[in-house]
Amino acid sequence: MQLNTYYQYYQRALSPETCQRIIDIGLQKIQYNKENNIPTSGWTDGNMEKGSHGFKSFKGKSAGELLNEGEKLEDYYIRDSEVVWLNEPWIYDEIIPLIKNASNSAGWNWEVSNGEELQFTVYHSPGGFYGWHRDGGGDNFSAYKYYIEGVSPPKTNNHLPAGYTNNYNHVGLCRKISVTINLNPEGSYEGGNLKFDWGRHAREDNQYYECTEIRPQGSVIVFPSHLYHCVTPVTKGTRYSLVLWALGRPFK
Q1: N or C terminus: which one in the chain shows less Cβ crowding within 10 Å?
Q2: Domain spanning 8-139+166-248: CATH 2.60.120.620
Q3: In the sheet where 208-211 sits, what is the strand order?
Q4: pLDDT value at position 195?
């Protein structure tokens, strides 16, 4: 899919008070999960998070690059973070208008109808990161199917298999638009930038782009879910972010 505009961003869209409120809620839920033996590690399809496959990390390399070097993907992990899921309605009220505005301003004008749960993520230093990935494909193969115990593929560590949901409202829909919000005060962490891969069609000197526009606290970036992106390693401090995926019917 060719795009004239890759992303839209809004600096300081959320107030410092709102950002701190979200951080407090997220950290309380992470603490609750830990006290009740509920996993808090960020999860990926294939169970490729830290602690699952040795001690090597993807970081700046893609899976393809590692395979070309003769490496085994099962020796690597692609994500090192903590996550918890939020569904407070007032947070959606802050974000949904920005998604609609961004889609119209960028000229996408995509139909979206539902948002998934909000993912609160913590990247600790040194080295918290999320390797190259994309959030969704936008096609029929990416549309959610309803999970049926004993019929659908089995769960992994209590996580639903990729492409399945237990929410009837999400069945038949796919991730079309992704949103990331920086919750940190400026200067409270180093590294941890959102980085994009525009694809091989881009000029060689312009294929990768490290997004620094959303470093101010409360800044929001909205981008198509099929774009490859990563979070570079945090080298100092702790990065707090909030992520939302807007769902819609697959592209035709």
Answers
A1: C
A2: yes
A3: 79-80, 129-133, 228-231, 194-197, 208-211
A4: 95
